[in-house]
Amino acid sequence: MSAHSRIDARAARWRPGPTLRRLALTVLGLALAITATLALEPYRAYQAAVVAAYLCATAGLTLLVGRGGQLSLGHAALMAAGAYGFGLTSNALSAADVAGPVRLLVPLAVGVASAAALGALLGAAGARLRGPYLAGLTLAVVVAVPAITSTFSRTLGGDRGLWIEIERRPEALRPYVGAEQWQAWVALAAAALVLFVLGNVGSGSAGRQIAAVRDDEAAARLAGIDVTRVKVATFTLSAAAAGLGGAVLAYVTQIANPGAYSLVFSLFLVVAVVVGGLGSLAGAFWGALLLVALPELTSSVTDALPVSAGLAQRLDGNLAVLVFGVLLIVLMIAAPRGIQGALTAARRRDMRPRRPARGATPAPGPAAQTQGDPAARAPTAG
Amino acid sequence: MSAGVVAPRAGTPPEAAGEPLLDVAGLTAGYGGTPVLHDVALRVPAGDVVAVVGANGAGKTTLLRALSGLVRPRAGTVRLGGADLLAVPVEHRVRAGLAHVPEGHGVIAELTVDENLRLGGLWRGGGRDLRDAVDEVYALFEPLARRVASPGHQLSGGERQMLAVGRALVSRPRLLLLDEPSLGLAPRVVADIMAMLRRLCDDHGLTILLVEQNVRSALSVADVGVVLHLGQVVATRPARSLLHDDALRHAYLGF
Asked: Which of A261, A294, A309 is the last residue of a domain?
């Protein structure tokens, strides 16, 4: 009966539920991030906006791949759906002389809805396809993006892309807040929304269902879980997040063009969530940060190298791909659970008692204890 | 504990006297073109432990999978409490009162003990009722109560089996299907598990259908024994008499 009394005592003490705590944390984090943008130069604020836009997509992708065990190589296409959905709606509203918050919020919602619809289709197919076949299907979708934009080039702008008439920052803010700062605010708010929703889904009953379906489909069905519904819902939610990312990116860059949502970028997204730490939202953040920081780093390296301008230009585009690939290999050897996994492991190492210094004769007792301590082994075991 | 995990649910009509809880007739099932089960008939009276025993490949696992819907039967009827079970989709059979602990437990490795247990009550939604059911399982299985927050992959084989049975109990089943609960466990742990099954039946009135290769320990706790041989039922007897029938044991069970 000890379990009973323990649990009752816990329930009697009121504490905010996990959702409420997560909401408070999200709002706090968003407020801090928004304040921080005020200290940034315009270009850095623009980069922060792009990181936030990418974060929407990587967070959605890490839920699908890390938790759901469904590999999508087509998340760039879902972002493109969000971007074009946003662009077409925003332009239509502009043509109809609609202005104000509606011209920002409705296009964002349409972007999310377009990507979610495409995601639901892929998810329905994904419920019947496994592993490489699902990956192949999603790959086909992302490969089709340029073909679609050039086929409907009158509406979608073809290879040059779709220029987007956007809602600018409110009149009242203009003396105090730069355009880039405002864009970063919008992007950060979108990312905060995605993190809040996905965090709740991941930790709640839905997250347990997703884990059960990935781990053991038969056991999940026996527990009364509709496996197909869970798979389609996971894919749709993941796609909606990617769609919001694409829509925000379109808002920030004021253009939706097929080159931004290429196959290479789609693979970058997958590598980013793996390098960041698969299945964790914090890992999705590291991934998004890398997506922006790495090309910047490699271009500053090529600038510093004493090579001809032509070679530098060629290196500029390809070095990032190379570095990303090498990083993936090195990281998978050194830290198989990605950046976030390595950080968590390091934190655990800090908390456990220090081993005796090398060279000193270790006392047999504590050494044996350290080896047997499950917490100390957990990072490698799991 | 009498009104515990396995108390009949509200709205469930009591089984008519003499009517078995589970009634299987003419069941034929298999994979692809080859049937594994041929014309199987089986009756599980309410409140009994029925053990299906037989050698490897006799069709024991397929029988349970056909009952819970993981394998679609080619012919036959399956009635649970008088209602046609085959018309119910797999995901909804747990609502009808059927809980199946599959071979290899089906414990979700990355979820904690508590999360695994709550999965069992998913179909009823959360709330007080689910919390109560989970607490009752902790009271039944002390070792689980000590490992509430441990992920499934850190549990021992015996703990996993307890967790799997516990998760099935959280769904408040009328009939519990168990696939080889002794598989891979030390003899003492097997004895514990079997005793626990007997207790669930005696103290809580749970009806259990268990398939086992470990004939001796299964028949020692069962009321009725069913011998399955090459997909056919060759004997249905009181478990005790089956255990002492040397000729049958030699012919079909190999000891």
From this structure: A261
Answer whether B139 sits within 8 Å of A3, measured CB to CB: yes
Given a cut of 70, whether residue B117 has pLDDT beyond it is yes
- Kindly report, residue by residue over A204-252, the tens digit of the pLDDT: 889 999 999 999 999 999 999 999 999 999 999 999 999 999 999 999 9
Do residues A119 and A203 both lie within one domain?
yes
Q: What is the pLDDT of residues B132-190, one digit of tens each?
A: 999 999 998 999 999 999 999 999 988 999 999 999 999 999 999 999 988 888 888 89
Residues A316 and A246 placed together within one structural domain of the fold: no
Question: Is the CB of residue A175 less than 8 Å away from at least one CB of chain B?
Answer: no
Candidates A201, A200, A196; CA nearest to A68 is: A201
Instruction: Report residue B112: phi and psi, to 5°.
Output: -75, 170
Q: Distance between CA atoms of B141 and A18, rounded to whole angstroms?
A: 28
- Helix or strand or coil: residue A16? coil
Position of tokens 């009725």?
B224
Contact A215 B139 (CB under 8 A): no
The alpha-carbon gap from A345 to the nearest alpha carbon of chain B, in Å, equals 17
Asked if A167 and A281 sit in the same domain, the reply is: no
- Taking the Cβ of residue A280 and every Cβ of chain B, the question of whether any pair is shorter than 8 Å is answered with no
CATH class, B22-253 region: alpha beta
B47: Cα separation from own chain's centroid: 13
Minimal C-alpha gap between B100 and chain A (Å) = 6
- Considering only CB atoms, which chain B residues are within 8 Å of A223? 94, 119-120, 122-123, 167, 171
pLDDT tens-digit map of A41-92 = 999 999 999 999 999 999 999 999 999 999 999 999 999 999 999 999 999 9
Chain B residues with CB-CB distance to A7 below 8 A: 131, 135
Cβ–Cβ of B122/A225 closer than 8 Å? yes
Tell me how many domains chain A contains.
Answer: 2
Domain containing residue A276: 263-353
- Residues of chain B in Cβ contact (below 8 Å) with chain A: 68-70, 90-95, 99-100, 102, 105-111, 115, 118-120, 122-123, 126, 131, 135, 138-139, 145, 148, 151, 153-154, 167, 171
A254 with A323, same domain: the answer is no
- Domain identity same for A101 and A225: yes
pLDDT tens digit sequence for B43-62: 999 999 999 999 888 899 99
Contact in structure between A231 and A220 (CB atoms under 8 Å): no
Q: Domain limits of chain B?
A: 22-253
What are the chain A neighbours of B68 within 8 Å (beta carbons)?
Answer: 222
For residue A350, the model assigns a pLDDT of: 80
Q: Residue A354 — very low, low, confident or very high, per pLDDT cuts 50/70/90? A: low
Q: Residues A188-205: what's their mean pLDDT? A: 94
C-beta separation of A357 from A366 below 8 A? no
Q: Model pTM greater than 0.90?
A: no
